[in-house]
């Protein structure tokens, strides 16, 4: 049913990920309300908005942690419903979580593969493929410039920057099709920000659909192709790079009345802006 | 970023890393939760080796291992559960209740021992499933949930035993069908010199090895560590936290059944005893073995070493001719030391990393 619907509605190539009127509730509160979004391969979509505007719920939804109550989530034009983050990851969608999702007591390689560990052998003798896991971890960390780490050291022995790199390297390794980056809450140095932005651009270059949730209009403008402004669980405006410059984004992010006024102004300038 | 980058990673990992001094030492020590128990065991063996030399004879060794093996089976199950951030207070009463089920089915209903054991194992696993599902679905502290099941099971066991058998002791299993084979599996002994070694020892080794394999070498083990150490990260990465938790409660229930069965076969009966005791022992031993009460950290070998430490001390005090009541004092001090050491470990492990 969903296949026929998807292929009928989409003319040429279906977008990699699409949200159609998606609503997600926590109890009676709608954290996301009728959100429609299109995420295409090879594009970076920046999601901006105040705290509590629904950004994190959107991340959780795309990553399979949160289920939607209404609407459709389409992958390649087909309706899907991820029941666990493992299913989203299996579909090629990987996430850098705001809290990095690193277990401090576990070793670096156990963290890298947590939830998707490589195994060898046949049950009941199936066991972790330790060598492959360690090698892959060291190799993938080296790919984003972190060398000389001991994969057996606990993650708490990593520097903050290395921990951050671990989360990014892991997402790049498992994200075959889409990368969702929720800007970490921990303060980052400029070098770490650069690493985030580099990895976003690299992922776009590899043809992934990239979602970047951020507070920073400068960084968003630097890498974004699209800008989705969220407010009160809804998409307040959906802009492209041609619509805005850094100043506009900054003002928009000031939020509240400013945001609404600017949205109106932009709507007048661009009557064709999607709702 | 001080260690040199390895050029080629061979198929086999060289065991010791080239010793880079300084900050590598701490992770090495922290990677071994059992270290404290090992140090304690060496100290206790050295002390009681002098104080009560009978401990080091074959007979002394056999009695120490006998105490340690029953304790160790429960402790290792509790330890793995603690790593996942949960605790099971009902394991001791599950062992009593399941052996009571076996005994009643044999003595009152005239069943063979093996069918009775199968039924009691199923009943124990059911109890474990109830514990696990309650903890997972309500999100209540497992300490309280299992305290509730402990009370229910304890009361039921006592009431059923006195109602059906008229006493809190059910015995006379020696005549049951299949008794000889059950005795070989759960009650065999081996006489070496003046020491009688029991087959429970093998069960203990087996359970500990299995727990160690599961913890360190399987996806399940990774899920256990993550569930206890970083539940939010575990959820975000799609680790099946709920399934892992329920399976671990099944594990402690099965361990309880095994302890009950070993005791049942040894005593040819079961004594329903209204005390809350063994659960606390398992917890103490698991903590001495290096488990953090907050979860995410611990080992099967640590629990085994903790059991040995416990057994050596309790036998040592007896053989030295002291009042055995001093053992509790010793145990309390030891628990306190272990908790202090573990809290230091915890602070080190969760320290905010240098940026």
Automatic annotation (TrEMBL), chain A:
It comes from the Bacteria. SMART domains: AAA. Keywords: ATP-binding, Nucleotide-binding. SUPFAM superfamilies: P-loop containing nucleoside triphosphate hydrolases. It holds the Pfam family ABC_tran. Residues 17-257 form the ABC transporter domain. GO terms for molecular function: ATP binding; ATP hydrolysis activity. The keyword Membrane does not apply. This is Sugar ABC transporter ATP-binding protein. It comes from Goekera deserti.
């Amino acid at each position: 049913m969903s296949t026929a619907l998807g292929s009928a509605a989409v003319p040429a190539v279906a977008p990699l990920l699409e949200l159609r009127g998606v609503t997600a509730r926590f109890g009676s509160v709608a954290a996301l309300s009728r959100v429609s979004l299109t995420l295409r391969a090879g594009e970076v979509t920046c999601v901006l908005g105040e705290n509590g505007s629904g950004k994190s719920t959107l991340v959780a939804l795309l990553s399979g942690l949160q289920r939607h109550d209404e609407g459709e989530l389409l992958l390649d034009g087909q309706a899907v419903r991820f029941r666990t983050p493992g299913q989203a990851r299996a579909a090629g969608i990987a996430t850098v979580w705001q809290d990095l999702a690193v277990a401090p007591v576990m070793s670096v390689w156990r963290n890298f593969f947590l939830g998707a560990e490589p195994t060898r052998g046949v049950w009941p003798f199936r066991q972790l493929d330790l060598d492959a896991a360690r090698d892959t971890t060291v190799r993938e960390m080296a790919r984003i410039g972190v060398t000389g780490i001991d994969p057996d050291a606990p993650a708490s022995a990593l520097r903050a920057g290395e921990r951050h790199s671990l989360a990014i390297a892991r997402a790049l390794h498992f994200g075959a099709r889409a990368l969702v980056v929720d800007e970490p809450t921990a303060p980052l140095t400029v070098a770490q920000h650069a690493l985030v932005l580099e990895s976003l651009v690299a992922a776009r270059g590899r043809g992934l659909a990239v979602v970047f949730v951020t507070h920073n209009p400068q960084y968003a403008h630097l890498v974004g192709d699209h800008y989705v402004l969220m407010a009160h669980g809804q998409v307040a405006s959906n802009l492209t790079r041609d619509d805005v410059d850094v100043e506009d984004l900054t003002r928009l992010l000031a939020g509240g009345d400013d945001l609404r006024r600017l949205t109106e102004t932009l709507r007048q300038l661009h009557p064709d802006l999607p709702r | 970023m001080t260690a040199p980058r390895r050029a080629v990673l061979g198929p086999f990992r060289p065991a010791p890393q080239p010793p880079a001094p300084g900050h590598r030492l701490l992770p090495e020590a922290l990677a071994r939760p059992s270290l404290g128990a090992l140090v304690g065991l060496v100290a206790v063996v050295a002390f009681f080796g002098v104080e009560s030399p009978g401990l080091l004879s074959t007979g002394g060794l056999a009695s120490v291992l006998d105490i340690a093996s029953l304790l160790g089976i429960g402790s290792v199950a509790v330890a793995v559960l603690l790593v996942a951030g949960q605790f099971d207070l009902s394991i001791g009463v599950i062992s009593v209740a399941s052996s009571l089920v076996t005994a009643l089915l044999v003595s009152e209903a005239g069943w063979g021992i093996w069918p009775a054991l199968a039924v009691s194992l199923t009943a124990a696993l059911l109890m474990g499933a109830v514990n696990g599902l309650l903890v997972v679905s309500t999100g209540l502290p497992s300490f309280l949930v299992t305290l509730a099941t402990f009370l229910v099971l304890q009361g039921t066991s006592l009431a059923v035993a006195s109602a059906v058998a008229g006493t809190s002791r059910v015995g006379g299993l020696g005549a049951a069908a299949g008794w000889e084979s059950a005795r070989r599996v759960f009650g065999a002994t081996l006489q070496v010199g003046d020491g009688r070694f029991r087959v429970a020892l093998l069960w203990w080794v087996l359970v500990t090895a299995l727990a160690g394999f599961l913890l360190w070498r399987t996806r399940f083990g990774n899920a256990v560590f993550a569930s206890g150490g970083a539940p939010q990260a575990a959820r975000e990465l799609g680790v099946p936290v709920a399934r892992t938790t329920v399976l671990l409660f099944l594990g402690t229930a099965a361990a309880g059944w095994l302890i009950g069965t070993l005791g049942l076969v040894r005593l040819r009966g079961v004594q329903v005893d209204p005390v809350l005791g063994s659960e606390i022992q398992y917890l103490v031993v698991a903590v001495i073995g290096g488990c953090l009460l907050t979860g995410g950290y611990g080992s099967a070998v640590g629990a085994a070493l903790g059991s040995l430490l416990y057994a050596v001390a309790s036998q040592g005090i007896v053989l030295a001719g002291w009042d055995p009541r001093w053992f509790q004092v010793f145990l309390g001090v030891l628990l306190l030391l272990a908790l202090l050491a573990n809290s230091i470990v915890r602070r080190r492990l969760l320290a905010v990393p240098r940026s």
